[in-house]
From TrEMBL:
Xref: Pfam families: GBBH-like_N, ParA
Species in which this protein is naturally found: Sulfidibacter corallicola
Protein known as: Iron-sulfur cluster carrier protein
Superkingdom of source: Bacteria
Free-text function comment from the UniProt entry: Binds and transfers iron-sulfur (Fe-S) clusters to target apoproteins. Can hydrolyze ATP.
Length: 386
């Protein structure tokens, strides 16, 4: 899977799901292999808009596997295909997180160029769960021009910034209505709010989508706008936005630059230099590798310096909510609770901002941001000098 893109809106009702489906269709029309994961668990829309109530194939024997549904040239999965459109989901957060975890880990997508995520609206903990569970290439943020939507969108953008997830751009939906009689543009929901926000934050404005009845009709009919009315102004605007997004993804390169299984056997000699380097992908590091059975090596892209971090120190410094109180910041994991002989099982990138470390004691929820790893390296270097 080359790229995973989150489509997000800070408020519901701004057309996020419609945009997600049509961006996916546009990518498929360009010849890409495309999937769509509807992680808007409480308000799944993709089953209706894709025009199918088919259930995904489920294999329970051995490793659990779910095979997505195919429609309109894309693979997709949605809670709407699992529960039906008329069944409300009155679930606690832990159940929602469980479904998101299953969608992320048990769906067999096959080879994909792009996986689009129809995200839940708002800035709840579902964003945190997804941001820490999936290596996102970036996010497209959908808003309407009105001040209320733009204000909430600004908060949503801050959430992605805190997670270190690149924002590919802002897409302003429902920007204007073209009068049938005089061709004048009528701004029903304010003027240029999304455009001004993009300018203020230095982000690309991916497009301004007009209000059209065809958009609603296509969604209700289960036939995406880009297929039903490919020459409609809204369809052309979405297609142009998709081209911009795909170009940006092509320029930044594929996700998951680092992904390797740890060799728990003792090395005859420490591997002080990286076996290979990854460059030109916008990463703050150019190499991550196993130095020895209990040491992780990182080469920093900016200055070419190398840091070697003991695995036990990393486990003691895990920043996840199990190990650190998320409200007070106080450590819950005691240093002497970590085994002396702890090692790693697996290491992989999380987007372009962090590493996920799977430890030999079974702990695998720690997402280590690169800036945090650099700080730990500097602390260790300072302690070695004293």
């Amino acid at each position: 899977m080359k790229h995973i893109v989150a489509i997000h809106s800070a408020k519901g009702g701004v057309g996020k799901s419609t945009i997600t489906l049509n961006l996916a269709v546009a990518a498929a029309q360009a010849g890409a292999r495309v999937g769509l994961m509807d992680v808007d668990i409480y308000g799944p829309s993709q089953a209706l808009m894709a025009g199918t109530d088919a259930r995904p194939t489920y294999v329970a024997e051995g490793k659990k596997q779910v095979f997505p549904i195919e429609a309109h040239g894309i693979k997709f999965i949605s809670m709407g295909n699992l529960t039906g459109q008329k069944v409300p989901l009155i679930w606690r957060g832990a159940m929602v997180h469980g479904v998101i975890h299953q969608f992320c880990n048990e769906v067999v997508w096959g080879e994909l160029d792009y996986l689009f995520l129809d995200m839940p609206p708002g800035t709840g903990d579902a964003i945190l769960t997804i941001g820490q569970s999936i290596s996102l290439s970036g996010a497209v943020v959908v808003t309407t021009p009105q001040d209320l939507s733009v204000t909430d969108t600004r908060r949503g953008l801050q959430a992605f910034q805190q997670l270190g997830i690149p924002v590919l751009g802002i897409l302003e939906n429902m920007s204007y209505f073209v009068c049938d009689g005089c061709d004048d543009r009528v701004q029903l929901f304010g003027s240029q709010g999304g455009a001004q926000l993009a300018q203020d934050l230095g982000l690309p404005l991916l497009g301004q989508i007009p209000v059209e009845g065809d958009v609603c009709d296509a969604g209700d009919a289960g036939n995406p706008l880009l297929l039903r009315q490919p020459d409609a102004p809204a369809a052309k605007a979405i297609r142009a936005a998709a081209e911009t997004v795909l170009q940006a993804l092509a320029e930044q390169g594929p996700i998951a630059a680092f992904d390797f299984t740890w060799n728990s056997d003792l090395f005859a000699a420490r591997q002080a230099q990286p076996p290979q380097e990854v460059g030109g992908q916008g990463l703050p590091v150019s190499a991550v590798w196993q130095v020895s059975s209990d040491e992780l090596g990182i080469k920093w892209a900016k200055d070419g310096s190398i840091s070697v971090l003991p695995v036990r120190k990393l486990r003691q410094s895990c920043p996840c909510a199990v190990c650190v109180d998320e409200y007070t910041g106080e450590k819950k994991l005691l240093d002497d609770q970590v085994p002396q002989d702890i090692s790693l099982a697996k290491v992989h990138s999380v987007g372009r901002y962090a590493l996920a470390l799977h430890f030999s004691d079974g702990h695998d929820s720690g997402i280590f941001r690169f800036d945090r790893l650099r700080a730990l390296a500097r602390e260790r270097e300072a302690s070695l000098r004293t």
